[in-house]
Amino acid sequence: MELFVAGFNAWNQLHFDDGQEAVPEPADIRTFTSVLTDQSIDKIEAFLSYTKVHSTPSGLRSAGLAPKGHEVLGEYLDEPEYLTAWASNGVIVVYTKATRSVQQYNSIKTFCTHHEGSRYSLEPAQQPVSSCISSRWSFTFPDPIIQLIAYETGFVALSSKGTVYTWGDERYSACLGRQVTDDSPADQPSPITHLESPPTGKITKVATGCGTGTILAALTKGNDLYAWGQSPRTEPCRRSPSISSCSISISPSSSSLSSPAATAARTETKPNTSSRREGAVLSSLNLTADPTPVDVADWKDIADFAIGERHLLALTTEGELFVVGDNSNGQLGLPDVEQSTDVWTKVEIDDDRIKSREAVITGVVAGPRNSFVMIRTN
């Protein structure tokens, strides 16, 4: 498989070539470019300042600058028995698969205080555990959780049965996708009733803006995409700018692609470019507090999707790649779009194998301000 990337590259976080020195002042990558090849690409963890790629047989490869805060959670992020997420407001959650329970901490300091056995610690010395018991809580889910992600001020969890749970800051109630009641408070995991029985099957994937955004979406087994939330503000409220992340495991979902009719450097539809920030541009998604079907290029069936801070990618079951939103760092892979587009636009990756249908796109991942496309040669 081959990994193509586009977008923000200020920390060389898209530079995986071990045979070359990293560029001192790297430029953003504005067209999808191949950066890594391996037998399989298993997992991509995309952060604002660095990227981790797990592939076979090469194993883990990192690029960019890893922040201190992330090292504190490192032992949990890379262990299969845990799922972790870190929201922009500093809140951290850790899910333990063995107990089906999630613990929430209001800061990295609180997390370290409660994990004295951690390999890492923060300066200065931590306060006694007894002084911050109120700074954390735990919750046990009825079914195993297979995905745990963060948005700007809260979290989303997907169970093995397709139930979508949300919790977070009540001031961002549209991001919860559900009514806030005494029985279903904002700050406790509660299911989104609108996604309990979708017409085309259960929810198989959820995504949001890598811990920074306020757009959330879910994909059904029958390839329908639903979105909810609110249009992003001009600047996200980020307490820890280098730590927000998207961690995506790559499943062999290529069987859902009916043909490798893939992608490129020209656009199928002339995009509506603008210098406006995405609070205006992504209004074309018609976001509401309730999950609503997303019309991608005249209701295409969606095989995979990804959400960045202010941009979205959608891979259709026909192998086509569509993008929308912010392109100020080139994250859409559309070199002719300087700032943004509010129209779902087809991208054609400039690769002869794709054009001749000798290769197919198998999945997409978004970092806060960059994009990743996995390609497999037939």
From TrEMBL:
PROSITE patterns: RCC1_3. GO terms for cellular component: cytoplasm. Gene3D superfamilies: Regulator of chromosome condensation 1/beta-lactamase-inhibitor protein II (2.130.10.30). RCC repeats lie at residues 162-219, 319-377. Residues 240-260 have a biased composition (Low complexity). InterPro entries: Ran_GTPase-activating, RCC1/BLIP-II, Reg_chr_condens. Residues 180-200, 230-283 are annotated as: Disordered. One of its GO terms (molecular function) is guanyl-nucleotide exchange factor activity. Pfam families: RCC1_2. This is Regulator of chromosome condensation 1/beta-lactamase-inhibitor protein II.
